[in-house]
Amino acid sequence: MTKRKENSTNSINREYITTNCDAIYTVCKISGRWKMKIIYTLSTYETLRFNELRDHIQGITDRMLTLQLKELEADSLVVRKVFPEVPPRVEYSLTDITKELLPIWPALEQWAEKHRALVSEDNE
Questions:
Q1: Whose CA is closest to 58, among 37, 72, 39?
Q2: What is the pLDDT of residues 66-76, one digit of tens each?
Q3: Dist CA 101 CA 29 (whole Å)
Q4: Strand pairing of 78-83 and 89-94?
Q5: Alpha-carbon gap, residue 84 to 64, rounded angstroms
Q6: pLDDT tens digits, one per residue of 29-38
């Protein structure tokens, strides 16, 4: 992943947003096309190896899964455990702080269901 310039508008906005609103900070940490799916999958299976994780997430490429896992690990949302074996075995699991997010999942699902219904009504 490339680094952003510290004085870029994107970096300045991200710094402002993530320091002034805890809800937005949370969304920034778990947002993206794949992060929530990775978190949800790991919550279901607790610990998975890379290939197992990829097999449970349809449509994700190896490169994207690697990038997303690196970001989640850098943000202390996922733990990467390497076992000293040949070939090396690597397992991924959620950190305790990430597990604290899991109770909000049903509320997000209920909201999504209501919103989809509302949008489909408006489009009819």
A1: 37
A2: 999 999 999 99
A3: 12
A4: antiparallel
A5: 25
A6: 898 889 999 9
Name the phi and psi angles at 78, rounded to 5.
Answer: -135, 145
Tell whether pTM > 0.70.
Answer: yes
Question: What is the bridge-based pairing of β-strands 47-49 and 89-94?
Answer: antiparallel
- Token pair in block for residue 79: 């733990």
Cα–Cα nearest to 74, from 63, 84, 85, 66: 66
Q: Which amino acid is at 64?
A: M
**What is the secondary structure of 33-90 as a DSSP string?**
TTHHHHHHHHHHHSEEEHHHHHHHSTT--HHHHHHHHHHHHHTTSEEEEEE--SS-EE
Closest of 96, 105, 89 to residue 52, by C-alpha: 89
Token pair of 46 as six digits: 């607790």
Q: Tokens 């994207």 map to which residue?
A: 64
**What's the token pair of residue 124?**
């009819």
Handedness of CA 64, 67, 70, 71 (dihedral sign): negative
Q: At 49, is the secondary structure helix, strand, or coil?
A: strand
- Cα(120)–Cα(98) distance, integer angstroms: 33
Contact 20, 31 (CB under 8 A): no
